[in-house]
Amino acid sequence: MAARYGVAGIVDLHVHLLPARLQQRIWEYFDLTGPMLGRRWPITYRWAVPDLIEHLRAMGVQRFSTMPYAHRPGMARGLCEFSRDLAAHYPGVLPTLTFYPESDAPEYVAKALADGARVAKVHLQVGDFDPREPMLEAVWGLLAEAGIPVVIHAGSGPMPGRYTGPGPIGEVLRRHPGLVAVIAHLGAPEISEFLDLVDERDRTYLDTTMSFTDFMNEMRPVSQDELARLRERGDRVVFGSDFPSIPYPYAHAVAALAGLGFEPAWMRAVLAGTATRLLDGESAVTIGPMAVDEVTATRDLLLGTYVGGGFIAPDSPYLASLADVDGRGRDAEVLVARDVSGAVVGTVTYVCARTPWAEISRPGEAEFRMLAVAEAAEGRGVGGRLVDACIDRARADGTDALVISTTPRMRRAHELYERRGFVRTPDRDWSPRPGIDLMTYRLDVGAS
Fold first, then answer.
1. Hey, what CATH class is 3-281 in?
2. Could you tell me the sign of the dihedral formed by the alpha carbons of 45, 50, 53, 59, in that order?
């Protein structure tokens, strides 16, 4: 599902993976919430945690939080430890901390951060506490210093609480300008007010949890003015699902987002790019299939790298092959690396044997071609990430080996290949035309 939208994997910052007893109590609460809301809230995924994780991966979700939250003293520490241990066992799980106004909160939050917490979660409605509570000042300060995203249920939906709405949390955010705040559910129903906070404050984001779905549209549809503002602020919106406590299939949440009809770049940023930046920093890149609106940028990058770098002559007949990005995309897979702004900063083409763009791959092998990295992105591991993506794809395809042709001048590329275990295969070196001699490398992937 992720590849359909031009990303290698979805990053979902609003997934709840909780201890079994607590999860069961939450589902029982949702069973009772229906009458209070005037409608049923049937949970679609009443599964054990391993099955939930397996389903997320099947949906193309690459990284996801666990979103614990405490509603009374003495809960939060154990929830932090549960999430930490879950992340140690399952790749892709983001260890998530939570807290409650209690004297030892600064101590266990500091411990969770030292243990590698990547996300924090607090629920002002369920927790029913004032975020301005003096004993929480140290906690907010720790989180601001750590720079991790803090997902905050501060909106007054589905039912208002004593401390929901933009007022209480807004005061906290103004006192802690370094805090990276992600307001859950777009802040519904106070979406416009939280959008104002996004405009006012640099490190405020909104997550899309449940928004735009048929279920939520019947309760609180997003207005046309709010949609226009969200479209303009795609760099401040991240994807969230509320999985597994949702009354519809997971795929519907993504389809509802796509149904807005916004630009592909907006969709890519929301599904992965912006969350990746929050998690990994400003130098982060994401890898995914090239989208239609990226053809020109990919072509320009290839031509600039190969000609500008002096690897081929400006009148080389190979230019036509490099420039045919569109055609290559029909018969092979063109991958691109995107920086935090969504700009294409790298590309590679993954090719299966016996297909139109294959050069040296034999049955049971795959190859990659036309690796290029923008000069401004050199030194950030972009080339390595693209090669790793090809290795992962080859393994997923069940191939025995991945092969590559390269020119003798591309010494930095040779070092990159060799660090990943590629070995020279001089017996397969070849010349596509007089004066052009190519070296070859091979990596066995079938046994991994």
1. alpha beta
2. negative
What residues have CB less than 8 Å from 318, skipping those under 6 apart? 306, 312
Do 3-281 and 288-444 have matching folds?
A: no
For the beta carbon of residue 77, count every other beta carbon within 10 angstroms.
21
Fold of 288-444: Aminopeptidase (3.40.630)
pTM beyond cutoff 0.85: no
DSSP alpha helix (H) spans, 38-136: 49-58, 76-89, 105-114, 124-127
Question: Which residues are CB-neighbours of 252 under 8 A, at least 6 positions away?
Answer: 213, 214
96 close to 121: Cβ distance less than 8 angstroms:
yes
Q: What is the pLDDT of residue 380?
A: 84
Report the sign of the C-alpha dihedral through residues 250, 256, 258, 262, in that order.
negative
The predicted-structure confidence for 388-427, as pLDDT tens digits, reads as follows 999 999 999 999 999 999 999 898 899 999 999 999 999 9
The pLDDT confidence band at residue 8, using thresholds 50, 70 and 90, is confident
The yes-or-no verdict on residue 448 having pLDDT over 80 is no
R_g of the chain computed on alpha carbons: 24
Domain boundaries, the chain: 3-281, 288-444
